[in-house]
Amino acid sequence: MALDTTLAGGTDRARALTLFTAVVEQGSFSGAGRLLDLSPSAVSRAIDRIEARLGVRLLLRTTRALTLTAEGQAYLQMARRILADLDDAEQQIADQGAPRGRLRVNAALAYGRLSVVPLLGDFAALYPHILLDIALTDTLVDVAGGQADVAIRFGPLADSTLTARKLGETRRVIVAAPSYLARHGTPEVPEDLHRFNCLNFNFRRVEPVWPFRRDGRDYALSVKGNIEANNGETLGQLAAAGVGVARVGSFSVADEVASGQLVPILEAFNPGDVEAIHAVFVGGAGTPTRIRAFVDFLAERLR
């Protein structure tokens, strides 16, 4: 009966619209009453009050059927549209409170496997309505062109319309396996690398030189080797297998260095250069909450 009392005061228009559409769709007061847990008489009185407030007849009642008047037909169309708009508005607010939808994430192979993937279970637990679609590849994707919602990139960022959020940074380290150094000796100065097999990246943007610092002066040294790869994890694995020397991000060989499979070399000449790690995405007021939630999560966990 609470619905009837509320309608009597004319204060709850949304409920009035819901009740009216229920009567029309169920074809009777009793059917609407069963749907809304009201008595048929309460439904009838509520319709009377709606009509009295509007000053028009909406329904023609007979013992066998209810018939919409022209005004009733117009009221029904507007009621359905208003109720649909209310549903949409509530869904949008709910989406802001609980981000949902597919989220396409692109991350560098090694960094994604070692640093991002271990965090995804926690993220999925926090945001169960987000469908994570993650691709690990060292090939750059076009975020602005819609190939990914969020991409995690290393190094300097090209000028673009994308928004970037810094997640951290990684220093570079030159490593080799103890077995390799036992066979070939340990380089004492960077120039000694000319007689070592230096494993390198195959990116076009990567120069075929390694940077060093001696006596406060930075310089670059050309190196050569017989294997190239597109990610630091692969180069680290090759170095751990005794194939050669590699210069990679420290995160990609942290476990191997900790276990003694790899040892850093030429640290006295390390220029201390670091690569910044960013999450990039299309920013702006219309950025979906699922994107902001994911970027905020990574920034907090990877800080």
Describe this structure in words.
The chain is an alpha/beta fold. It folds into three domains: about 1-95, Arc Repressor Mutant, subunit A (Orthogonal Bundle); about 100-160 and about 280-300, D-Maltodextrin-Binding Protein, domain 2 (3-Layer(aba) Sandwich); about 170-275, Periplasmic binding protein-like II (D-Maltodextrin-Binding Protein, domain 2). Helix content is about 40%, strand content about 25%. The chain contains ten helices and 13 strands. α1 packs parallel to α4 (about 40-55), α2 packs across α3 (about 30-35) and α3 (about 30-35) crosses α4. The longest helix is centred in the N-terminal third of the chain and has 28 residues, at about 70-95. The chain is rod-shaped.
- What is the strand tally? 13
Rg over C-alpha atoms, rounded to the nearest angstrom: 33 Å
**CATH overall fold name of the largest domain:** D-Maltodextrin-Binding Protein, domain 2
Structural class: alpha/beta
Shape: rod-shaped
Q: Would you identify the CATH architecture of the largest domain?
A: 3-Layer(aba) Sandwich
Report the helical percentage: 40-55%
In the CATH hierarchy, what is the superfamily of the largest domain?
Answer: Periplasmic binding protein-like II
What is the rounded distance between the termini? Answer: 56 Å
Q: What percent of residues are in strands?
A: 15-25%
Which CATH C-level class of the largest domain is it? Alpha Beta
Total domains: 3
The number of helical runs is 10
